[in-house]
Each structure stands twice: as structure tokens, then as C-alpha cells.
Amino acid sequence: MGRVTERRKVIRIRDGVVSSRPDTLVAEEPLEIRLNGKPLAITMRTPGDDFALAAGFLVSEGVLGAQSDLRNIVYCAGATADGSNTYNVVDVQTAPEVVVPDITLERNVYTTSSCGLCGKASLDAVRTTARFPIADAPPVRVSPDLLASLPDRLRAAQRVFDRTGGLHAAALFSEEGELLDAREDVGRHNAVDKLVGRALQNGELPLSRAILLVSGRASFELAQKAVMAGMPVLAAVSAPSSLAVDLAAETGLTLVGFLRGSSMNVYAGEDRIALRAAAAQG
């Protein structure tokens, strides 16, 4: 299994003083995901929670939707020419009744923003493939004060970031603000996949009462992952993309950006935010 961090020698310059010292870096390695023995995708990730990452990725692609859809996940032995195991190739085995599209390395599954398509095609793909319509989810209501408290709670859970400064993070919170799970990775989309994959493995999908918080911007791909897992609220400390806002508006996702201190922008789904109470307090 690859390490989450690695040590490298650096030349440090501080106030004109030059010194040599070891530095802790976040590890980054490729992970090839195979589906029933067929190559599907390669992603650069921080080693760890690889099975959850693969499962969450397949939830986002519309292949998996329930714990019963997943038969097994294994590391592929003999992943190199000499037969050694790099722990960088996983094979996801689905249950016999799961219908899987013909998949190649070109990823002929339903398309995401990372496949080079955008606009209405991507929006239609998510809307028609999502198993857990957010509009049908139980009502969730959160206050601006609760949302404002979440970034500090996520930051406190970023243990590897404290040592490297080089990781994104994603976390699931309850509507009462309880931290349910948090994951770190060099890719924020991988961190979200790890959250969703663990939820699938534990039989917890859909995440219809959860708030997803990400440590950077809210891209279309992250909004897609929230929708595919049935999450009603996505909050980000930075900006959303225009296509993420379009997807949120079309699917009923509550999308919050620039969540910093007591300030935030609500781009879609404002009905889940207790705006009237906040206005009264102001």
C-alpha cells in the first residue's frame, strides 16, 4: 500500500538564511479502476481508501447505487510486468443483476465534465441517470450560522494537511452540524468519491439528509457527485462554476459558494436555507 506522505530534501530560504532540511509532501500516485475486469479510468490520487474511491466513482457514473450492487473490490495482483502488486490497480466486481454498459478506457459510460463534454448534454446525463431525485428527498433546513461553522470543523479534521499543506478535503455533515465523515486527497473530486464510496459500502445511500462541504471551488463534477449520491446541499469555500449552478438549479440541489466566516453566496436551492430567520436577526 502506498504511503499518504513522503519525505523529500528541500533547500529552505528564510530572511536570507539558507538551510537544508527534509520536508513532508503528500503522496500522489495513479489509480487504475477496472470494472468486472475491464479498464475504466485512471485518476491521480493520494493512496488510501482506494476501494471507497472506486466505489464512489462508480456511483457518480451511475453504475452503482446500493450496497447490494457491489459484489467485491480487490487490488489486482501482477499489475506490473514482473508480477508484483503496485496497489495502484483495483477491480470492482458488480453483482450479477447490475447492468453495466460497454466500458473502455475512453469511458463510454454516461458522460461527465471530465470527459470533454459540457452544457446541456452533461446536464441531461445527470438528470436522466440520477437514482435519488433530490426533489423527492425529506425536507432539510439549515441556518446560515450552521453553514458558517462548518469550514472550521472541516479544517480541524484535516490531519494530513497540517503536515503537508497540499491536500483538498471534503466532509459530510448532518443537518444539525455533526461531522459524519471527512476525507483528504490531492483531488477534491477523489475526496468526495471516498465519502460517497464509504457510504455505499455501509448501505447509507442516498445521503438525503447530508450536507457536503468541499475545501475549494464547486465544479460541475462535484455538483454531479452530490446529485448522484442524493445529497441536498453542497457548500464550497470558493466559487462555483456556471455549469455547477445550472445543474443545481435543474436538479433542486442547494448550492452555496464563498463560504467564509459569516459570509456566503447561495446560488440555487435557497428554500433550504433559513434566510428569513437570518434577515430577522440582521
From TrEMBL:
Molecular function GO labels: sulfur carrier activity; sulfurtransferase activity
Active site residues of this protein: 115 (cysteine persulfide intermediate)
Keywords associated with the record: Cytoplasm, Molybdenum cofactor biosynthesis
Record carries keyword Cytoplasm: yes
InterPro entries with a match to the protein in the record: Cytidine_deaminase-like (IPR016193), FdhD (IPR003786)
GO terms under biological process: Mo-molybdopterin cofactor biosynthetic process
Subcellular location(s) of the protein: Cytoplasm
Keyword Cytoplasm among record annotations: yes
Any coiled-coil regions, as ranges: none
Taxonomy, superkingdom: Bacteria
NCBIfam families from the UniProt entry: fdhD_narQ, PRK00724.1-2
Purpose of the protein: Required for formate dehydrogenase (FDH) activity. Acts as a sulfur carrier protein that transfers sulfur from IscS to the molybdenum cofactor prior to its insertion into FDH.
Family statement drawn from the similarity comment of this UniProt entry: Belongs to the FdhD family.
Protein name: Sulfur carrier protein FdhD
